[in-house]
């Protein structure tokens, strides 16, 4: 005698498995056809995804800007809101080896497990420390780059700990003595 409940259960199980398998096989094909039209954002070569905060300094909310005078007292934390995202940012001034000062901003999230990072330095921004697992990010302040660390000028590279890559930068622009964030790389 055949158990119909068992047979129906097996049919459902095998049908579901076949449907999932077909879906998994078809996904790359469908993605290649509609990928560019489905809102996919191509990452930068570094793996970062650019997020536009402001089109230009004139369209940027005034509360996103930080005056250079304020930055001369030390780094400033800002929470930048873009649609439904909140990007924690630290703005600061870097003194390069050539003596020039550069306004910069970085996403204040460790690239290891996403913990908030602490600022290192006083008046000038020199790095970040992660309190969770001990990653240390140091700044390349040499305009010619830091070949020993394979770091570009103004890159916040990993100098210790488990973080897999440099801290993400925020592209900034200065207008009338105020630093504005334009694009965050997350």
In short:
With 186 residues, the protein is an alpha+beta fold. The protein is built from 2 helices and 11 strands. Helix content is 19%, strand content 33%.
Key features of this structure:
four-stranded antiparallel β-sheet, 33% strand, single chain, 186 residues, alpha+beta, 19% helix
3D structure, described in words:
There is one protein chain. Strands 1, 2, 10 and 11 form a four-stranded antiparallel beta sheet that branches. The protein has a four-stranded antiparallel beta sheet with strand order 6-7-8-9, with no helix packed on it. A three-stranded antiparallel beta sheet has the order 3-4-5. It starts with a helix and ends with a strand. It has helices at 4-34, 68-71, and strands spanning 50-52, 66-67, 76-82, 85-95, 101-107, 118-121, 125-129, 136-139, 156-160, 170-175, 178-185. The protein is an alpha+beta fold and 186 residues long. Residues 34-38 have low confidence and may be disordered. The radius of gyration is 24 Å and the shape is elongated. Strand 7 and strand 8 form a beta hairpin.
Low-confidence stretches: 34-38
* CA distance, first residue to last residue: 62 Å
Compute the CA-based radius of gyration: 24 Å
Write down the overall geometry: elongated
Fraction of helical residues: 10-25%
Number of strands: 11
Task: Give the SSE order as H and E letters.
Answer: HEEHEEEEEEEEE
Structural class: alpha+beta
